[in-house]
Amino acid sequence: MTRLHFASALLPSGWAHDVQVVVTAGAIAAVTPGVAPAAGDERHAIALPGLASLHSHAFQRGMAGLAELRGDSTDTFWTWRETMYRFALAMTPDDVAAVATLLYVEMLEQGFTRVGEFHYLHHDRDGSPYADPAEMAARIAQAAEASGIALTLLPSFYAHGSFGGAAPHAGQRRFICSVDQFAALVAASRRAISALPGANIGIAPHSLRAVTPDELAAIIPLAEDGPVHIHAAEQVKEVEDCLAWSGRRPVQWLLERAPVDRRWCLIHATHMTDEEVTAFAQTGAVAGLCPITEASLGDGTFSAREFVDAGGFFGVGTDSNVLIGAADELRQLEYGQRLKHRQRNVLSGGAGRSTGRSLFDGALTGGARALAQPASGLTPGARADIVTLNAAHPSLAGRHGDSVIDGWIFSAGGAAVDCVWAGGRKVVEGGQHGLRQSARDRFTASMRRLVA
């Protein structure tokens, strides 16, 4: 049992003072506000629940910064994708483990305590399956276990190169599965995470580009009671190609032809009509927003104000992992809306409300829903995922309540994160994860070989 005492803590009911939190077997057993610290309590100033990065491609952390040289033609998502394919084709299972371990260490240092790993790097470099279908998934699980981050594994089904069952691109050979292969992969992945504390599993049909309607219908039952994630409407070209194939836009097609409900998470959903925004919000599914990656890739700007006003749920993910930061993703989400609407505090939720608090609450709730977590926040029964902020940071000086979150998101960023508990295990102290240096050393060794 661990007893923590916080001068101020954000509970589901709001900010509370002098809060004692008791942690047992990785979960929060009791939360008692308004009590003085007792002997043996570990004392901290400001506590928040950890957030989920609901959408991550761990291997892409290794190529961060490697696609910033413009070629002869207009540089777009589609040209970036070619660089990603080349990088993916070079990685060994050991490389994947090294990259994922550093990534998850960095996520924890920045206030993310759970990751939704949209995992599609399945096979050997020539495209042949490993003897264990979950060889690569097991490396992801190992990285999660070493770092302490909670894992929602989302094996991705990828069968085609474009709409209508087009043949896959040669660069996609490590991703490609038949329905039967994917069923075996999901079963093996379920075994790979079975002993990992706090882990769960869903499925991720990659996109309507990569999955035919019949295949989508065949794989959805493999999720059992887990989440279903899919990329949708990230790029204008994707929308145009989907219209040419089906007469429907991607989100429109999914809402009309797939059983989209609160178990689903539509990643990006950047390009929607007003009607799609409203219909999507009404399903209870989550919009998986990755603001930094969407900016990096030139995707466009999600209709966040309209979606939230319609009652939609959202969470944030780090996607390509070009920059890791819970505060950074939330800040970019709001700043994108400010640029789009030429207004300030667009996602505050109303007059007199804190934008940072609204962003944080939305991401906390949506992230938990998207990753099928029955409880979230600093509440009894929830996994003990706790983040403390350094009250002495200049951007938090003299702040109280929601202004603390505003100072963290819009000024201090990750530099204000002090300690992090993941499943009750203290993994970050003084802003540094215990594995930081060893994870960096392994990552650096892999990168020197891969970049060369």
From TrEMBL:
InterPro entries: Amidohydro-rel, HutF, HutF-like_N, Metal-dep_hydrolase_composite, Metal_Hydrolase, Metallo-dep_hydrolases. The keyword Metal-binding applies. Keywords: Hydrolase, Metal-binding, Zinc. Its EC number is 3.5.3.13. One of its GO terms (molecular function) is formimidoylglutamate deiminase activity. Its cofactor is Zn(2+). Residues 1-45 form the Formimidoylglutamate deiminase N-terminal domain. The keyword Hydrolase applies. Residues 46-427 form the Amidohydrolase-related domain. PANTHER family: AMIDOHYDROLASE-RELATED DOMAIN-CONTAINING PROTEIN, GUANINE DEAMINASE. This is Formimidoylglutamate deiminase.
